[in-house]
Amino acid sequence: MRKLLTLVSAVCWIFVVAFYPATPAWSANKPSSRMNPKERAFFENKIRPVLVKKCYSCHSSKSEELGGKLRMDSRDGMRVGGESGPAFVEGRPNESLLIQALRYDGLEMPPDEPLSEAVIQDFIQWVKMGVPDPRIDHPLIAKKPDVESAAANPELWSFQSITNPAPPAVNQPNWCFDPLDRFVLARIEQAKLKPAHDASPVHLVRRLYFDLIGLPPTAEQVEAFLNDYEQHQQQAVIRLVDELLASPHFGERWGRHWLDVARYGESNGNDGLGRNPTFPHAWRYRDYVVQALNDDVPYDRFLTEQIAGDLLTAKTPAERDRLLIATGFLAIGAKPAKAMNVNFDMDVVNDQINVIGTGVMGLSVACARCHDHKHDPIPTSDYYALAGIFLSTETMWGYAANQPLTAPETPLHVLKAKGHYVAPPDSGAKPNVDERTLSRKKKPQKVYPAGTPLAMGVREKKKIVDCKVNIKGESKKLGPKVPRGFLSACQMEQTPELTDKSSGRLQLAQWLTSADHPQTSRVMVNRIWLHLFGQALVRTPDDFGVYGERPTHPQLLDHLAIRFRTEGWSIKQLIREIVLSHTYQLSSFCDEQILDTDPENRLLCRHNRRRLDAESLRDSILAVSGQLNREPGLGSAIANVDELVNKAGNLHLPHNHRSIYLCMLRHSEPPELSAFDLPDSTKPVGKRNETTLPTQSLFLLNSPFLVEQADSFAKDVLADPELNDTDRVHLVYRRALNRSPESSELQRALKLLEDVDQALESEISQADLRRVAVWATLCQALLNTNEFRYVD
After folding, report:
1. CA–centroid distance for 221 within its chain
2. Which residue of 406, 547, 658, 667 is most buried, as measured by CB atoms within 10 A?
3. pLDDT tens-digit profile of 316-370?
4. Which residues are listed as membrane-spanning (predicted)?
């Protein structure tokens, strides 16, 4: 049957291409002339530190003698090259002198000893990316700004205090549902434009379902909303929003957004030695995030629990366990190869600083590890002030597949409350064990009895220390000691005091969530706006620094940040207020004047059409086919797998729960999701890339998952013998697209069914099987359409 369904999928694809045109040109944003955040982060984290440590001594403006007349301390210097020519050919690593030299192929750089294979691969990837390089010949100097200089320098906008601007006057005050609408409408009126018309009720209900719970509405839910909306308009919207915010699926949708920021993964990822050990207990942190968002834990408390949950008071064993699990936020990051890296402990600290800096503050603090930040006001001393906090913290990731060359074994939190799920010993995946594990010494005995519930996380070290500056990022080359502390450029009225009795993580959380911290609330508000509109007010959500984009609506950003804090840091409340605004409820369709004047929709005259992310696409297919299990998934497929999983295809066991419960192995993603821009989970990601690749079309056309779901969809549609073919076409459209087919669509669909039936007559003699295959063709065609895969 599967073979035959795959055969007829070609017919389905012709149907899609012929009758469902590509996404309208107006829905795509123009490419930015600036380097994208992912490229900048790659350079700053992977390339610049190596250049500084290994190349600048001989190839910079400060070198006593410029080796080979090649400067490597500036973008233009590497492009012009030296005596042997340009250092690279963009996009072609095998033709680049730089890569040949790093491989010791004719040239040898650095001359004292070759770089590790992992670092060489980073440079190869950099060249493949087109050598993105933000450096200039005269970089900005990172200096600690005082309040006056920060206020006078617009480039340091995110370090300035959050204001509380009054909503501006507008010509059409009755248009505004919420004060935030005034900030938007004022800008539109200044541009002498008008907002687009309101979204149709059908588009609005679908938008709300996807944005709030990540699932499509059923035909019955759409009909119920339309009936309520016809009589009560905005009151119907309010009722629906409150219902969706109270749904347990809210935490599954918005928890996935946070897991991107938290760089969540259930394995270590490739550590440079080609090893990928599992983290069998990481899923407990995933479940913590889902439940915390469903419970609307205030964001300041949510952050505090993840940074310092082990230091908070708990009233019950269950609460104590929950707080310990929360600290998995700091433990789940990818670890480097211990065997290749004398800086292992400081690399773990660097990952923790990066998730706090980028994830919470929107600042690339980790760039100050080797030198003062080149453009933001973050000196190296600030980096090591934070490093002391995490160096005084024990990170607990567990056995790491019993591979000390990868990451030395550490303890885990033992959970003591009753009722924790523990997977039975014989459940879950059966791994293909990497042959390299067979040569290891005797596997150490487990220190925890079978069935003990365990969790990754952090706890205090017995000895609290201040960190010494690692000169050029080298942990063996030490400079002066830096007292533990925070970013000096964030000028606040009161800064929590650190003592020698604790690491300072609790004080760090208090500092981040202080009422006058300039970044924390702005960054989170911006992330929420991004997920509701498809574009953020600051379009570089992970970079609020000098080279990040400026806010399109700075007063609106501050207005929302103030509301967020004064209303108790409630994520649900802020989302509720935004989706009930008139700005959110605009149509994504507009007239040519708006498109010509503001093609990137910076003025928010209209809503943005958006493609479903990987998880929402899979979940929608399961929901429409009738195969979605809406209960939470229990544990993980690797809950009992503590091995290297480089070839991990058989670890991705089939299940029909929400996609957030799939096994998320680094560098071995679930096959149902991998084609659609999943982040690699090695660093915080606030905004996913959105690519359009042939592999995505091939997945929609040929993947066993989609073929099987189309088959299930067809069988469900055929289950009622009272329906005729016209009724069934209407049913397929209502379930897949939340609407009835137009007359022309109905006729095309019926003709398609007839043509496919004739084509398969010689292939499938049994009428019942052929009928399922015929209807599966139509079902798969609709699941391939832009109308199904995009939200207006």
Report:
1. 29
2. 658
3. 999 999 999 999 999 999 988 776 677 889 999 999 999 999 999 999 999 999 8
4. none
Same domain flag for 345 and 455: yes
The string of pLDDT tens digits covering residues 86-117 is 888 888 888 888 888 888 876 778 877 788 77
DSSP 3-state of 343? coil
Report the domain count for the chain. Answer: 3
The answer to the question of residue 99 being in a domain is yes
Residue 569 lies in a domain: no
770 and 698 together in one domain: yes
Contacts of 25 by beta carbon, 8 Å cutoff, 6+ apart: none
3-state secondary structure of 183: helix
The pair of structure tokens assigned to 40 is 């900048």
- What is the rounded distance in angstroms from the CA atom of residue 456 to the CA atom of residue 454? 7
Q: Answer yes or no: are the C-beta atoms of 126 and 47 closer than 8 Å.
A: yes
d(CA 394, CA 410): 9
Residue whose C-alpha is closest to residue 6's, from 717, 746, 698, 782: 698
Q: How far apart are CA 753 and CA 740, in angstroms?
A: 17
Which residues lie below 8 Å from residue 284, measured CB to CB, with a gap of 6+? 325, 328, 455, 456
Range of the domain at 413: 266-512
Give yes or no: residues 23 and 65 share one domain. Answer: no
Indicate if 309 and 427 belong to the same structural domain: yes
The amino acid occupying position 231 is Q
What does the alpha-carbon distance between residue 39 and residue 128 come to, in Å, rounded to a whole number?
A: 11
C-alpha closest to that of 358 among 520, 570, 144, 157 = 520
d(CA 622, CA 687): 25
User: CA 590 to CA 595: how far, in whole Å?
Assistant: 7
Q: Which amino acid is at 107?
A: L
Report the run of H or E that residue 394 belongs to, with start and end: strand 393-396
Backbone angles phi, psi at 548, to 5 degrees: -75, 165
- Report the distance separating Cα 439 and Cα 272, nearest Å: 19
Strand pairing partners for 459? 394
- What is the arithmetic mean of pLDDT over 1-20? 47
Amino acid at 192: K
Q: Are 265 and 664 in contact (CB under 8 A)?
A: yes
- Phi-psi region for residue 7, left (φ > 0), alpha (ψ -120 to 50) or beta? alpha
- Contact by Cβ (8 Å): 118, 343: no
Q: pTM for the complete prediction?
A: 0.84
Q: Where are the beta strands (DSSP E) in 167-295?
A: none
Identity at 716, one-letter amino acid code: D
Q: Is residue 91 one of the residues assigned to a domain? A: yes
Q: How far apart are CA 712 and CA 768, in angstroms?
A: 14
**Token pair belonging to 588:** 């994504």
Residues recorded for the chain: 792
Q: Is residue 150 a part of any domain in this protein?
A: no
Boundary residue ending a domain (459, 491, 512): 512
339: left (phi over 0), alpha (psi -120 to 50) or beta: alpha
Q: How many Cα atoms occupy the beta-carbon half-sphere of 746 within 13 Å? A: 14
CA distances from 633 to 165, 263, 284, 319, 664 (A): 45, 20, 11, 21, 13
CA distance 337 to 352: 17
Which residue(s) pair with 541 in the sheet? Answer: none
Q: Is residue 22 domain-shared with residue 93, that is, in the same domain? A: no
Q: Which of 512, 535, 551 is the last residue of a domain?
A: 512
Which residue from 383, 329, 631 is spatially nearest to 509, judged by alpha carbons? 329
- Indicate whether 288 and 342 sit together in one domain: yes
Per DSSP, 139 falls in state P
DSSP 746-784: HHHHHHHHHHHHHHHTTT--SHHHHHHHHHHHHHHHHHT
Considering the domain architecture, whether residues 295 and 329 belong to the same structural domain is answered as yes
pLDDT > 80? residue 596: yes
What pairing do the DSSP bridges indicate for beta strands 413-414 and 454-455? antiparallel
Cβ–Cβ under 8 Å, residues 175 and 181: yes
Instruction: Examine the domain organization and report whether 77 and 8 are in the same domain.
Output: no
